[in-house]
Amino acid sequence: MTDPALLSAVPTGIWIGGAAREASNGGRFDVVNPATGDVLATVADATVADATVALTAAVAVQPSWAVTPPRERAEILRRAWEIIRERADDFADLITLEMGKPLAESHGEVAYGGEFLRWFAEEAVRIGGRLTAAPSGNGRILVTREPVGPTLAVTPWNFPLAMGTRKIGPALAAGCTIIVKPAEDTPLTMLLLAQVFADAGLPDGVLSVVPTRSAPAVVGALMTDRRLRKVSFTGSTAVGKKLIAQSAEQVLRTSMELGGNAPFIVFDDADIGAAVEGAVAAKMRNGGQACTAANRILVDNRIRDEFTTALCARIDAITVGPGHDDGVSLGPLINARQRDAVSTLVDEAVAAGARVYTGGAAVDRPGFFYQPTLLDEVPAGSSILDEEIFGPVAVITGFDTETEAIEAANGTDHGLAAYFYTRDLDRASRVAAAIEAGMVGVNRGMISDPAAPFGGVKHSGLGSEGGSEGIDEYLNIKYIALTS
Ligand code: NAD
């Protein structure tokens, strides 16, 4: 049950210099509860001028933040993690309110998202370099790592907390200042996080949050400002490609976490019960609105009927409803546009001859709900096999050989997550090596871990977030030539 005081306690201004302020033109925009369609709050709508003020604040404190002792930076990050834990109910409540996922999943995101701050608090004190003798005998080679500088983070709506902390954690640990441009559907969680960082003692100006409805203009203006040094983006491949092109002008460091089209392969020697549970987790979690979501379920034809029947029964047991209601395991989609996009993909596949095992339509109730759906026999070439579905729709395709399964898995421009189920150890190592993806789950349907590098290959992105690799994205390498 939402604490009535929660929404009034969340800052709804643009967060700059440690305080919330109105937009320079006084503009505000609505944040909508996707479970009802009702307006939850209005938020200040940052203009290019406001974003430029945020960058000026970041630039002003960048030198002092860069030389703040790593231990102090670590303690602020750790304190922020502790406050998130203390306020876990508020964060979970807010995530469910503005994004819609079931409350238990929101709690999962709070734990996962918060953990990036603890993880990078621990990494902040381990930024190293090296000193070696030049092989020629001509002096010594000193290699150091320095913060990249003022960073812009652009985040999506599907994990309103975690997609922010995955960037803020390593940026602050490395000594970078950061401006976050949250998704317009879900700015409240990031604004509450800004308040948490202020409470944790983060110096003013180090973190800004600029909600805006004018993302292309605001992001474009910051990226062409020569004072910005890096952009870290999580979102669709289409927007990511635009930002990569824009980043050329100022030769920005870029981290790109883009779309996926994850294959989920079930071999004939798999534990079918485990594979069904894994498929439900990989497909239905977050309403299917995850970049790591299983987009294409590839099943050996010898077990296809058995697997499909079991998966269908499991999907039929899913309870759809508002994320705050007891027993609900599938919430709404984020907005009407997303629901309609999912509807269109399914309708086209069905019109082309796909078989609907269950679901197949929007739910007739307020909010933006879509039925959990299972399709099979989708004709090759259907958009639903190539595009990121981003909804609770499982699509099964059959295969006859391991080679065919791997070819199908790799037959996409994307390469973010991939999953497969087998009990054969040789096959496991063979297939894991052959799959073109940044992350591979072997006999598991959930793989994200703050201690592991998260990232994709091909059109799924550039760079890694999380793990000991994540902080490198925010550090420049400097070589210092010493005479002795
Ligand atoms: P999106 O690309 O539409 O938007 C992402 C962010 O970019 C938002 O903050 C948005 O306001 C901003 N934006 C949109 N157009 C812009 C432009 N022209 N210039 C600058 N900024 C712009 O994506 P979305 O719908 O919010 O999120 C879903 C997508 O994110 C999916 O494709 C999903 O796979 C991807 N995603 C990837 C990861 C990952 O780590 N690889 C994680 C989560 C989501």
TrEMBL record:
Residues 24-480 form the Aldehyde dehydrogenase domain. InterPro entries: Ald_DH/histidinol_DH, Ald_DH_C, Ald_DH_CS_GLU, Ald_DH_N, Aldehyde_DH_dom, Aldehyde_DH_Superfamily. PROSITE patterns: ALDEHYDE_DEHYDR_GLU. One of its GO terms (molecular function) is succinate-semialdehyde dehydrogenase (NAD+) activity. One of its GO terms (biological process) is gamma-aminobutyric acid catabolic process. It is an enzyme of class 1 (oxidoreductase). Its EC number is 1.2.1.-. The active site is at E257. SUPFAM superfamilies: ALDH-like. It holds the Pfam family Aldedh. The keyword Disulfide bond does not apply. It comes from the Bacteria. Keywords: Oxidoreductase. Belongs to the aldehyde dehydrogenase family. This is NAD-dependent succinate-semialdehyde dehydrogenase.
